[in-house]
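Ligand-bound model needed. zinc ion.
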Amino acid sequence: MRCYRYLLASALLVSSAAAQTPDWPAARKEALQTLVDLVKIDTSQPAGNEILAARYLKTKLDAEGIPSEIFEAAPGRASIVARVKGNGSKRPLLLLGHLDVVAVERDEWSFDPFGGVVKDGIIYARGAGDDKGVVAGSFQTLLLLQRLKVPLDRDVIFLGVADEEAGGLRGISYMLDKHRDAIDAELAINEGGSGVFNRDFEHIRFEIQTAEKTPRRIDLKAKGTSGHGSVPLPDNPVASLARAVARLSEYETPVHLNDTTREYFRRLAERAPPEEAAIYNAVLAGNPSPETQQKLREISPVFYSMIRTSIVPTIMKGGYLKNVIPSEAEATIDIRALPFEDPEELFPRLKRIMNEPNVDLVPHPVTRPAHSPASLKSDVFLAFEKVLNMRDPGILILPRMSTGATDSAQLRAAGIASYGFGPGRAVWDLAGGIHGKDEYLYVKPFQDYVEILYDVVIEVAGTK
Ligand SMILES: [Zn+2]
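Prediction:
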């Protein structure tokens, strides 16, 4: 069934671009091999060593005759850019994925995290889900465009970027600041969204990331008079810190929807059972009651975080002896702000909410800038809707605001409309071990993603 629909879709999509249809069985195999090769290269933070992955990709690009260049922000911290040229009548489309991965605790793993293990249709490796599948898929798309000599209105640029997991200072921020020309584009497709499939590997919905929250972490530093544990003091920093943390974590920040989250809940409401739809509609109507917000949170804690700036205490430290009042205590609060929230307004507000004069609020350096969500009417978003509807007519397609951060924050802030899409995830385990132990990716949905991405790129960049 899917095959028939797919053939129909391909025929419609490429008829005007006069391009051949890729040899998909071969391309799917090749993309998987690239992914396996990439996960075997240890690019874990904090060292990164993305240069190893960049060189691997460069060798392949050279063999295909695709011009490419490696940019090093610091020794070993490399990003690679390659380009297939179009006729220049439209501005470029950027396809990117990050080459670095988070560190592993090897003892926790059931597999060698850098062994490239493929077993029963699943690849287990650090980076399989985040983000080397996206790198391999974007890379495969570029290879196919070149080999099939697809006529393009836009240049298609591939970027394998460094340092995403640490905020992108030596990756996307460096590229935008120092080598904007190499990656400048109107539109971008990055990680951050995906299909969601069931036990039969059928997609049940697709989520295209068009916005994300931005990390605005703070430290709370409490100071007081140190003394003997037998004598209570009014400025005990442990007590002040505990009150400040409790007040912040109980503070309900204002509810605010943007174009993405409004459309997200609107589309969910259309398909949800009546009781659930009523909750989404109450959120959409504005100023949802505390009861409505609680019900939303019960459906998914992620939904609750999608409608507001979230405040989550993650670290508390203070004291060293059971009978000594320390002079200091410290906490870290992971704040995830709505994309356009102004920290200059937020932090003074939080200080008032804490209401503890001997607790200072110290913001962490900002890596991800405030930005506007990407439009739901752009060529990329419309192409996703068209391609996905051809593959799975009537399937639910949701624009999504991630609660986590990606390089798309910097791209959007720089005026490049960035969209998130990647390999499909299982509905019973959406996290897929990402950032944890035994990270994995299902091979078939990964390969389906490669086909979808190619079709979307043809739709956005192919000559009509
Ligand atoms: Zn990632």
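Residues 1-9, 14-18 have pLDDT under 50 and may be disordered.
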